Structure formats: C-alpha cells, structure tokens
Structures
1.
Amino acid sequence: MQKILIVDDHPLFREAVCSSIRQAFDDAEVLEARNLQETVEAISDNSDIDLVLLDLNIPDTTGFNGLLTIRTQHPKLPVVVVSGNDDRRIVAEALSYGVVGFIPKSSPKSMLKEAILETLAGGVFLPPSYQRDGEDAESAPGSNGDLAKQLSTLTPQQFRVLRMLSEGKLNKQIAYELSVGETTVKAHVSAILRKLKVYSRTQAVIKAQNIEFENILAADEES
C-alpha cells in the first residue's frame, strides 16, 4: 500500500487528484494538507509517507521556501511539484532543490499516474516537452554532457546501485543485496538520475552501458 500526501490549498484540486490516485491505485492511502504547517505535521505524524505531491503556491510560504523546508527536514522523502506554472526556469530550479518530479496542473490523469509510478520506483518525472528539450541539449555539440565528469560525482554506493540497475534489478532486490531500505535505494536512484542528467532509469542504464563497474569499484575499495 502506498501512502501519498497531497499539498494544495484548493479543495477541488485536492479532491480531483485524490480521486485520480485512488482510481489508479486501489490500495493507496491519501493524506491531504492545505498549507506548510499542516504539511510538516502530516509528515511528522506519518513517517511511512512514500510521496509528497506539492503545490508551490500554498499559504504560509512563498516561492520555493516550502519545498526547501520539506527537503531540509526530510531529505530522503520524495517530493513531486504539481504546479500551474511549468516555465522551464521553474522546473529547473525545482530540480536543483532535489525534487523527483514536476507535473503541470494541466496534465491529463494518465500523466499523473505515469508520474507517480515513475517516482515511486525511484525515477524522476518531468513534462514531456522538458524531457525533449533536455535530450536535445544533452546531445548538442559542445554541451556539458561529459559522462566522466558526471560519474565522478557519484558516491561508491551510487555506483553499486547504478550497476545493479544496469543488471535489471528492482529496488527491492537492490535493497536486499545492499542491506538497506527501499527508501534509501530510491533516494540513490533519484540522485543518480540528477547527476547523470537523465530523466528515467532506462536512460541511466543506456548512458552507463559501457562503464566498467568492477574496475571502478575495485579502485575505490583499494584507495
């Protein structure tokens, strides 16, 4: 059973999102919050929340301050921004604060379901237009898509997770082999996607297909 927290000050929107989630996930438990204070309280009272769907424009906070509060107090909790403003600069800034997804409020129900599935699996979901633009920029001549530089930012544990992703293993299997919780694995996967500048596990695996993991990990252990 998944536990999802919806944060939005408009009752009709919360009701619509709640209905969409329950239609897509029969056993989902949905919590609601209208402002930052209620959000912080809900997270404190429910340590097993799997995902937060956060509107940036809620009472008692401005701009990205609410998001920063959540990320600071609960850095491993996956947060997806749901906003009426999908300007690329807003999306990029949200990503820089460590969110695992960005869903425009104009999105159809099918996209909401896709986004939740992707992020619950440890992926990062972005609007299709943003993904296309990002892929174009990544492949453009002179872009900063330097794989070696990106790989240098990964921790040894993130390398291990990336290797297991390349082997087709699920979060549950990775957690078992590394003796950590699934939440920790999801956090590693999200960090890997951000550092490799990709938007899905599949893209990460494709990007890492020529990496000699054993040599890298062996060298790290020797040092």
2.
Amino acid sequence: MEDLLKYEREYWQAGYSHIAGIDEVGRGCLFGDVVAAAVILPQGLVLEDVNDSKKLSAKKREKLYDLIMEQAIAVGIGSVDAATIDQINIKQATRRAMKQAVEQLSIQPEYLLIDAEKVDVPIPQLSVIKGDATSQSIAAASIVAKVTRDRLCQGEWDARYPEYGIAVHKGYATKLHREQLLALGPTPMHRKSFMRNLFVEEQTLF
C-alpha cells in the first residue's frame, strides 16, 4: 500500500510543522470556476480512506470532506472564474486559485506540497507528480476542492442555468453538455477559449 505520509514525514522531520497540501479541480471543464484548496493537517494524523478524489464515490467524498474539515488545522479555498480563465489561460488561472487558497489559510504554512504545480508565494514548496495519489495532504485538498466545486455545480450554478445539466456533468464536455451548448449557445460562465476546438464546425456560435 502507498505510504501517503512519506512526503509529509520527510518535511516534519526536517522541522516543518505546518505543511499544506494543495490541489485543484475543474481544470478540464467547459463551464465554471477552477477551484483550489489548501489543507494543513495535524502532524502525524492518519486519515483512513483519504485518496485522490477521482478514485472515490461522491458519497465517500462527502463523508471524508466532513472529516477533513473537522480534523484540519486550517483550510483555504480559492477560485478563478471562466472570464479570467479565458483571459489568462487555464494554467495561470489554476496557479492563481492555488495562491488564493494558500492566502486564505488561517495559519501560515511553513511548507507546501502541490499537485504538479508551482504557487507564486515565498514559501518553500515541492511540486509532486500525481500528488493526490501519493500525499495525504494533497489528497485531502483534492477532496475539499472537489466537494466544494460539486456543491456549486449542484446548487447555485445549476439553479442559474438549469437547461445545461450542470448538476449532472459538473461542467465537463459530456454528450449532454455539448448538445445543450449547440442548442442554446454558451452562458457567461462558459469558457469560450475551451470551446473553439470542441466545435470546429460550429465556430460561428462562439
């Protein structure tokens, strides 16, 4: 079994107490914000079943979200909207959301473990490839970000644009979503830069 505390343990032993795991969700969506979370867990805490949010059922994620929020020393959330994503590109938007998440932490982290990214803050950090599957802190952040964004999709965003099925597909390019886009056109919350390649023959729509 993967040791999900190997990175944390290394930096705890090096003298860093408050280590924040950082991850994002919604990077590949056609609709809505990209959402990032930063989570600082207590030193030595082991959270059973915490793993990459994509490997967990929605019900399991919700349960683990509550546990993480209860146990964490600090949690920060950041988000960047579709208009800004179109303006600065998804990579820069992701980094901005991650920076916001770090800045929202109530306790200053001493070290950052980030899922395959860099964050523009003067804090020592490590970019971890597949971090959400190899670090408990990053996995916890992935769960918090995913549940946060899913709740927006199922609540506020779906209520705003009920014809698009946002609650069902969460803004990803499913068949239903593409069909509704062709029938109705994009909303102000759709990422126009993502759709030009999706509908090559229907470019006049966008």
3.
Amino acid sequence: MTYHLFPAVLLVFFSLLFKDVVPADVKKTNPVYYSKNYKVNSVSAEELAYSNLQSNDLPMPSREGFMQAFKGFTKLKEKGLVTKNILTLIDFSLSSNTKRLWVIDLNSNLVLFNTLVAHGRNTGNEYANSFSNVSESFKSSLGFYATGEIYRGKHGASLKLDGLEKGINSNARERAVVIHGADYVSESFIHNNKRLGRSLGCPAIPVELTDKIIKTIKDKSCLFIYYPSPSYKGTSVLFS
C-alpha cells in the first residue's frame, strides 16, 4: 500500500512547491492580469512589466515614471475606471525639447508611440515645475486620467480626458483639458524658439500623430502625467 501511495505524495509535494510560479510565457505576454497575485523571486509586478517592455528601438520611459504609472493603472483597472490595457505615460520631469510621451500596449509589452508633448504656459518654460487643478490657471495637472471620447474642436480631432484624482486633476473636463494636435509641438518650433511651445494646460501633441494616437488610446484607457513630486505622491490615494 505504501508503494502505491508514494507517487501521489510526490505529486502533492511538487504542486505545493510550484503553486506560485508564473509560467515564463505568461510573464512575457500578459503581466497585467497577474499583477495583484504574483511576485516572482521577490520581483514586483511593475518591475516585471518594466523588464519585459519592448521599445522597438525607441527611447524607454524612466523606470520610476513607468512603475508609478503601472501601479496606478493596476488599481484603476481593478476598479473598472479604465478598461483597456493601453497605458499613456507623460513624463514632465523631462525637458519639453525631448520626446516625453509614451503610449504602451500592455498586452504585448510594446511601446507604440514616443513623441513630444506640451505642458501649460504657466507650468514652466522648457521644464515643467508648477501644476494646478484650477480653471484659468493655464497650468497642467498631474496624475491619472481616463481617456474619453473623440470630438472635433478648434484644433481638429481632439480627445476628452476625465481626471480621476480629486483635488489634483478632477476639473479636467470643466477646464477643457484635452489631447489635441498643435503646430507649436514640433522640432521646427524647438529649433526656432529654443523650447517647445506651450498650451493652456492641455497635453498637446504633434499634428501629424494626433489621429493615430487618439484613436489608439480613446475610450477609457489610462493616461498618467508623472512628475517626481513628494506632495503629489503623498496626496494621491493611488499610492496609499
């Protein structure tokens, strides 16, 4: 009888030993769905996602910016506040003369776009350093947004945004903070003015990429505007 029980005992032993290991192919193809249940060799889900990110020879976002974005995205996805596995990261710690917007497909771990993006005229000159949720401040707002619907306005095709953080960016709709194209978001403007142009608070992008980007990220995908602000991180409930 002992002889016949031995294989069953071994099977139970090995199933317990490996129950928390994520298959290698799953880790590479879809880290999002495993983000709240697994840590592999003490590596967090956001670290795993960053290490698997493929940029297609485009510049990579910063580790800190991406990891904050991914943490917040995971919480928002669990709550149903965003529904797509598309993450847009804007890094306002960087010079406006650099390509500091990334659109990332979290299903395939691919960087789809990396481009210029403007900040508000009262947020700073070349560098962003002052942010607001107040109407007529002409400043950018930090934090997490859900993308909304496409409409046609004075800048052509534009994408509405819903700020998801009370007191930080919750007035985005009221302020008409949207993604739109602008001719002052271009390499030629930088060449002639030594810095990128600025908006009234909108994350404006190059005209030639506007249609492609807003069609990719529309309808409840996650957008995160990052800046290494201790006050923001202390205030945001997504980091509590």
